[in-house]
Amino acid sequence: SQTIHQWPATLVQPVGSPLSLECTVEGTSNPNLYWYRQAAGRGLQLLFYSVGIGQISSEVPQNLSASRPQDRQFILSSKKLLLSDSGFYLCAWSGNRADTQYFGPGTRLTVL
Amino acid sequence: QKEVEQNSGPLSVPEGAIASLNCTYSDQGSQSFFWYRQYSGKSPELIMFIYSNGDKEDGRFTAQLNKASQYVSLLIRDSQPSDSATYLCAVMNSGYSTLTFGKGTMLLVSP
Q: For B90-109, what is the mean pLDDT?
């Protein structure tokens, strides 16, 4: 069966510090991968998605970036965090038919 | 801009009642629709998906889809306190491999 991992589970970072969140998927190959952010009181916002290694699509302009160095690894990064980057970051995967998405446990980021 | 609208709630129902959650969407080309449940502080988990007009039943859950009205709903029969959560409606964007989510409806089931 497929499993999706995210780490860390929680993170507190100062404004201006860098960020690296990692997501890995087990039990499937060539998945579509997604990064979402859920801010307090707001809906799920799609940040990036990837249909293959090195293929990243960005949904919204921001100070975040994403990379997919391996088939089942998806990384979310920032060089300098802003207060507005606080939120619940969720990674999701789907099969390469791009259908049902399954979410990882999430990373709760607080920027102070 | 594709939109998915849900009543934010909270929707309060007594234990054993039927809870009805509704969702409308703007993308007329959408073909796939999903319901997720999200407990406070946790990630969303898939409850059901529906592709065709009509009803689809899975245990206590029934999803209903009306593409002409651009409307999808989720019925929860025999509601339990453990069903108390936020329910997210998601719509597959036509021509893309992405979902647009509604902001969710909070359901509270009282014992």
A: 90
